[in-house]
């Protein structure tokens, strides 16, 4: 069976810039392994439902709880890749940070974080599937406004 993880693409809107440059995405850098960057996410615990995992991991890894997030309707992306020879599925929902000034608090699993505009976020993300997911989130947010 595939490993399963769930998380949130968290974004914030800056009042000082015009769309789409007003949107920044949150990426966290692992403190282990290759120090790769991803949105907050993590493994589903036995018996836990996917959205609960996404909320729990976002709280544990970034210190952002559900009261600080506004989940965006109609966005859910599934990534599939291999980790150490085993298939892994990752589900990402999309959520806006309600108060752009809210501080991010990292756990021991991460050593750094960045609020990045789309192109910088894609450079940090480095995996094509994650880059495509970030671009899909950006497109979804632009289409929603029309
Ligand atoms: N010391 C140590 N400890 C580790 C290591 N590894 C794990 N731990 C422990 O596990 C706990 C984490 O538990 P959770 O937080 O619950 O789970 P996740 O958030 O799911 O975390 P993971 O890091 O397991 O999973 P991924 O991010 O998926 O990275 C796995 C591999 O996939 C590549 N990869 C990543 N993202 C993408 C993508 O979007 N697209 C594609 N194509 N590939 C991608 C990436 O290059 C990487 O090589 C930590 O506390 C550690 O104790 C490790 O190497 N050394």
UniProtKB/TrEMBL annotation:
Keyword terms, alphabetized: Hydrolase, Nucleotide-binding
Signal peptide annotation: none
GO BP of this protein: AMP biosynthetic process; ATP biosynthetic process
InterPro entries assigned: NUDIX_hydrolase-like_dom_sf (IPR015797), NUDIX_hydrolase_CS (IPR020084), NUDIX_hydrolase_dom (IPR000086), Nudix_hydrolase_domain (IPR051325), Tetra_PHTase (IPR003565)
EC number(s) given by UniProt: 3.6.1.17
Function: Catalyzes the asymmetric hydrolysis of diadenosine 5',5'''-P1,P4-tetraphosphate (Ap4A) to yield AMP and ATP. Exhibits decapping activity towards FAD-capped RNAs and dpCoA-capped RNAs in vitro.
Family: Belongs to the Nudix hydrolase family.
Name of the protein described by the UniProt record: Bis(5'-nucleosyl)-tetraphosphatase [asymmetrical]
Lineage: Eukaryota, Metazoa, Chordata, Craniata, Vertebrata
């Amino acid at each position: 069976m595939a490993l399963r993880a769930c998380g949130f693409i968290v974004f914030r809107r800056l009042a000082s810039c015009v769309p789409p440059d007003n949107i920044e995405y949150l990426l966290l850098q692992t403190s282990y392994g290759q120090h790769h960057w991803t949105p907050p996410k993590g493994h589903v615990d036995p018996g836990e439902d996917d959205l609960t995992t996404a909320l729990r991991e976002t709280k544990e890894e970034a210190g952002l709880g559900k009261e600080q997030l506004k989940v965006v309707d109609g966005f859910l992306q599934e990534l599939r890749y291999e980790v150490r020879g085993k298939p892994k599925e990752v589900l990402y929902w999309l959520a806006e940070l309600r108060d752009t000034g809210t501080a991010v608090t990292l756990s021991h699993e991460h050593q750094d974080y960045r609020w990045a505009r789309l192109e910088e976020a894609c450079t940090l993300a480095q995996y094509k599937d994650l880059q495509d997911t970030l671009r899909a989130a950006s497109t979804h947010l632009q289409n929603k406004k029309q």
